[in-house]
Amino acid sequence: AADKIHLIPQDFFAELCEQIIQHLNHKIPGVNTAELCQRIQTSGVEITIGDLAKIVNVLSFLFSTAGRNNLSTEELVTTLGRAVSTLPKHAVQVIRHVWNEQGKAIAGSEDARNMAAVGQFVDMKWKLGVAMSSDTCRSLKYPYVTVTLTVADPSGQMTEKSFEMTIPQFKNFFRQFKEMASVLETV
Q1: Mean pLDDT value of segment 6-30
Q2: Which of 115, 131, 154 is the last residue of a domain?
Q3: CATH number at residue 127
Q4: Distance (Å) of CA 159 to CA 14, 38, 86, 120
C-alpha cells in the first residue's frame, strides 16, 4: 500500500487521514472509499478502489496502534520513518499534521485501547418485489424481500451486502429485530 500512497494528491490524502481519525473517534461510521476513489480518479489519478481500501486499512492500523500506544507526534513520525522508508514526504507531513491536530483524542480514548475487530452497522435498505415469470416457469407470482446492509469494517471502509428473503424468512428476521429492540429497552 505504501507504494500506492504516492499516487494520491496531498489534499485527498489529508482528507482520507482525517476521515480515518474521525472514524476511530466514532464521529463518522466509516470512510466511503468508493466515493473518494471516484473523486481521485476524476482528478486524473489512476487508482483502484482495492488499492485505496488497502491504504485505508494501513492508515487505520497505523493510527489505532499509535493511539493504543499513546504515541506523541514525534514518536509516531520517528517510528514511521524507521519502519517505512518508501513513504512520500508529503504523506509523512500529512500524517504528522493530522496526528498532531486530532490524534490526542484517539490516544486518550479508552476505546482505542480496547478496539475490537468488528464492523459497524451503518444503514439498511429493503424493498419488496414479486417474481412474475422466468424462462422455465410461466407463472411464479413469488413475493420476496431484498435487503441491503451497509457496514463499516474496523478500518472504516464501507461495504454493502445484499440478500433476498422469502416472506416467512423476512417475518422471522423482523421478529428477531423486535426482540433485540425490547432487550435494548431494558438496558
Answers
A1: 87
A2: 115
A3: 3.10.450
A4: 22, 15, 29, 10
Cα-flanking dihedrals φ and ψ of residue 95, to 5°?
-60, -45
Grid cell for residue 94: 500529512
Contact 12, 43 (CB under 8 A): yes
State which amino acid sits at residue 124: M
DSSP secondary structure string for all residues of 42-85:
HTT----HHHHHHHHHHHHHHHHHHHHTT--HHHHHHHHHHH-S
Q: Are residues 102 and 133 in the same domain?
A: no
- Radius of gyration for the chain, computed over Cα atoms and rounded to the nearest angstrom: 21
pLDDT confidence of residue 113: 42
CA dist 98 and 91 (Å) reads 10
Please tell me the pTM assigned to this model: 0.61
Query: How far is it, in rounded angstroms, from Cα 53 to Cα 153?
Result: 11
Cβ(119)–Cβ(153) below 8 Å: yes
pLDDT digits (tens, 9 = 90+) for 49-65: 888 888 888 888 888 88
pLDDT in tens, 59-107: 888 888 888 888 888 888 887 776 666 677 888 889 889 888 887 777 5
Residues whose CB falls within 8 Å of the CB of residue 37, separated by 6 or more in sequence, listed in order: 47, 48, 49, 52
